[in-house]
């Protein structure tokens, strides 16, 4: 069931007081390189450094008082772990976070700093899910999936709503595609609020499950995810895929060298810190210049939580 326009607008109004209205910035140099007008929606400046704060805050707000009293639980090694922890703290709710044992300490420290209660698991999806289920049964906490949850999807779409308020005449908006929450939410926002604006996904060749899913019409998975864009190693879900399948125009795949080059360009030319996943949409625009030529292109910079000891350039 695809959410309605009323749900999209209500979500925006609900989330707005709890998140930063992040800036939209441009670069004349990148415009000339791309041959298009690029508008970067900088969610790297969002609370906790990524768009995922939006979905987390919306999902918790939609819970009953009873559910808020027993807390929330998720499994994540990255930005959603931080987002749910901070959103829960801001709303006075306990957050239980299952994190793989091989998660970098800097990410664990961030979750702890936001008040998240960490349980470590073996670094497999099955182990993560098992721990989350155990916590649910012991605490009655409500499970919130990082991307395959309607309220999370609607929350993530509020970044595109803000972008379209500033630039209602965009020809297209690009997002990276990982678990599918951001692109599904973006597609809903554009579908209802800017009918002529296409939504286009961007994905590494090394984790191109979403591209293949659009080809076959069913959810595909990855055998390997050997990409520097660590935020895009997850799979689509049964709630976000129908939205993506219906409303996303296409997905463009890029090489690892193209991701690193685009990330380097953003750091050097725009003077902002972005994580590798955030550079994938720019890499897609630069790869397909003929398609984007002279278009007004929105790009959602998904986050800036980068491991400074492990840069790809």
TrEMBL record:
The residue ranges crossing the membrane are none
Q: Keywords for this entry? A: Lyase, Pyridoxal phosphate
Occurrences of domain Tryptophan synthase beta chain-like PALP (ranges): 16-303
Q: Which domain of life is it from?
A: Bacteria
Give the cofactors, semicolon-separated.
pyridoxal 5'-phosphate
* A molecular-function term among this protein's GO annotations: serine racemase activity
One of the GO BP terms on file: D-serine biosynthetic process
Q: Which Pfam families match?
A: PALP (PF00291)
As for family, the record states: Belongs to the serine/threonine dehydratase family.
Tell me the protein's name.
Answer: Pyridoxal-phosphate dependent enzyme
């Amino acid at each position: 069931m695809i959410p309605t326009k009323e749900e999209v607008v209500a979500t925006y109004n609900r989330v707005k007081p709890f998140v930063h209205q992040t800036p939209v910035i441009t670069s004349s140099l990148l415009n000339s390189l791309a041959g298009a007008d690029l508008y970067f929606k900088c969610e790297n400046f969002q609370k906790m450094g990524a768009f995922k704060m939006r979905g987390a805050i919306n999902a918790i707000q939609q819970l009953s008082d009873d559910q808020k009293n027993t807390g929330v639980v998720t499994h994540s090694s990255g930005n959603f772990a931080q987002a749910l922890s901070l959103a829960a703290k801001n709303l006075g709710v306990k957050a239980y976070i299952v994190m793989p044992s091989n998660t970098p300490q800097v990410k664990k420290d961030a979750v702890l700093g936001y008040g998240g209660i960490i349980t470590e698991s073996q670094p497999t999806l099955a182990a993560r899910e098992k721990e989350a289920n155990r916590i649910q049964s012991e605490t009655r906490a409500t499970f919130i999936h990082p991307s395959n949850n309607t309220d999370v999807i609607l929350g993530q779409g509020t970044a595109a709503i803000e972008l379209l308020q500033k630039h209602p005449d965009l020809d297209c908006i690009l997002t990276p595609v990982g678990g599918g929450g951001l692109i599904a939410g973006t597609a809903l926002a554009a579908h209802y609020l800017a009918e002529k604006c296409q939504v286009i996904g961007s994905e590494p060749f090394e984790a191109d499950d979403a591209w293949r899913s659009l080809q076959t019409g069913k959810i595909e998975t990855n055998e390997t995810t050997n990409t520097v864009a660590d935020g895009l190693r997850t799979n689509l879900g049964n709630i976000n895929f129908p939205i993506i399948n219906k409303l996303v125009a296409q997905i463009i795949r890029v090489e690892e060298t193209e991701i690193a080059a685009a990330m380097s360009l953003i750091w050097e030319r725009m003077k902002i810190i972005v994580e590798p996943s955030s550079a994938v949409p720019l890499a897609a625009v630069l790869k397909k210049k003929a398609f984007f030529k002279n278009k007004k292109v929105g790009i959602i910079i998904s986050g800036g939580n980068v491991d400074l000891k492990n840069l790809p350039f």
